[in-house]
Amino acid sequence: METGLNNRAVVQLTLPIMFGYIPLGMAFGVLFVTQLDYPWWGATLMSLTVFAGAAQLLSVGLLAAGAGLLEVFVAMFVINARHLFYGLSLLGRFRGAGWRKLYLIFGLTDETYSLLTSRPRSEDLSQEQKNDFRITLFNQGYWVIGSTLGAWLGRAVQFDSTGIEFALVALFIVLTIEQYKALGQSLPIWIGAAAAGLCLAVLPEDQQLIGAVILTTATLLVSYRFHKRGVAGMEQPHG
């Protein structure tokens, strides 16, 4: 079981996320300074205070198209609404984390959630919360570094971002495989794939992501409820 993680161990653990976050962060930084004509440090500041990953890329496109701040806020909220469910599942794990708890909630992303829930853990809750904090901090650090580098280079280098979004897809695939290897449960994967396929077929493009998230969440909750009832029924004494 893991105990305290040093910086080298955290880097090794978060290496797949680093390879996804730095190039995507650079793409965000480049788009930020070229499409919005803002100073480079604006990209760094946004990544420090917002840290919304793909939603930051979306916000650049919306602002460049003349959208208002309220529209950008609503769009980012809808895209990141899935994090509400992530947070609920980690409330017990973060309980008693003190000042670290607020940052653990703020820094929770899809990739960080996957890593926190799939890595081996010891019985020392306090130490594991410190490990979770460092993992979250390193992951945001990768995004901030990528954003800053991209913003610096944005005005000096011609940057073709065609296909860069596939890095995020590849990262999700790796994390899904790691989740399956750690938990040994394939049902959530099949439910997610089926929900995504159904929403891809019947919903407009701008509603497919939120539709798939809602459908997957509802199906998993129903599945969990039936599973819980079945376990309770097996535990009841038979007269």
Question: What features would you describe in this structure?
Answer:
There is one protein chain. The protein is mainly alpha-helical. It has 13 helices and no strands. It folds into two domains: 7-169, no CATH class; 185-239, no CATH class. Helix 4 (54-64) runs antiparallel to helix 5 and helix 9 (110-118) packs parallel to helix 11 (166-183). The longest helix has 30 residues, at 125-154. The mean pLDDT is 81. It comes from Marinobacter nanhaiticus D15-8W. It is found in: Cell membrane. This is Branched-chain amino acid ABC transporter permease. Pfam families: AzlC.
Topology:
Layout: H1 7-13, H2 15-35, H3 40-49, H4 54-64, H5 69-80, H6 82-89, H7 91-94, H8 100-106, H9 110-118, H10 125-154, H11 166-183, H12 187-202, H13 208-235
Helix pairs in contact: 1-10, 2-3, 2-4, 2-10, 2-11, 3-10, 4-5, 8-10, 9-11, 12-13
**Structure classification:** mainly alpha
Helix count from the secondary structure assignment: 13
Number of β-strand runs: 0
Radius of gyration: 20 Å
The largest sheet is: none
Task: Give the terminus-to-terminus CA distance.
Answer: 42 Å
Number of domains: 2
Q: Could you tell me the mean pLDDT? A: 81
In terms of DSSP E residues, the strand content is under 5%
**Helix proportion of residues, in percent?**
over 70%
- State the order of secondary-structure elements, H for helix, E for strand: HHHHHHHHHHHHH
Q: Can you tell me the overall shape?
A: globular
Low-confidence stretches: none
InterPro entries: Brnchd-chn_aa_trnsp_permease (IPR011606)
Organism: Marinobacter nanhaiticus D15-8W
Family: Belongs to the AzlC family.
Main location: membrane
